[in-house]
Design goal:
With 177 residues, this protein is α+β, with helices and mostly antiparallel strands. It is built from two helices and eight strands.
Length: 177
């Protein structure tokens, strides 16, 4: 699905504040050009009124999604999110990739299939509030390689920040179709 150009965002709301050089945490980012298979995704559209409220919205939506996934005997795979604005309030599509689509959707839960195709992934190690650096590197790669985005970027969360002791161990992949 091709989205209108104005829906391509390259800064994360988690990193929305103006940063100066001395506030940047030196995160590790590696870019990878690869292809992905199609993904079956269940998601909830919600809005965080402030940057500080994002984690609460994500927690609530992931709780709802996991209850539905378990109740329908689906297997959860990737935990994901699309940020659909560049400033508060933050409209967010909170999503989980599943092994298959359920026969019937319920409540706020919606479904989409992400098409297979070429992506650039920014693999990032570091705190969420620095994820804007990954978006910036993706944009720079697109510009340098004279390529255009074919859809909105999305974040994939690879570990639980509550389970790691050092914020530099938080793993986030940002996919850019």
């Amino acid at each position: 699905m091709q989205l209108p150009e104005e829906q391509f965002y390259f800064t994360s709301p988690i990193n929305s504040k103006q940063m100066t050089q001395d506030t940047l945490v030196p995160v590790k980012i590696e870019l990878e050009k690869t292809s992905i298979n199609s993904m079956q995704v269940l998601y909830i559209k919600d809005t965080a009124p402030t940057t500080e409220a994002i984690k609460d919205v994500l927690g609530k939506c992931y709780g709802e999604l996991m209850q539905y996934i378990q109740g329908n005997k689906l297997t959860s795979m990737k935990f994901m999110a699309w940020y659909n604005a560049m400033q508060p309030p933050w409209p967010i599509d909170v999503a989980v990739e599943t092994d298959r689509m359920p026969a019937k959707l319920k409540g706020r839960i919606q479904a989409r299939v992400l098409p297979e195709g070429e992506v650039i992934i920014a693999h990032m190690w570091g705190p969420y509030d620095q994820v804007g650096q990954a978006y910036e590197q993706l944009q720079n790669w697109l510009t340098k390689n004279n390529r255009k985005a074919k859809g909105a970027p999305f974040e994939v969360y690879l570990n639980d920040p509550a389970a790691v002791k050092n914020p530099m161990e938080i793993r986030t992949d940002v996919y850019q179709p």
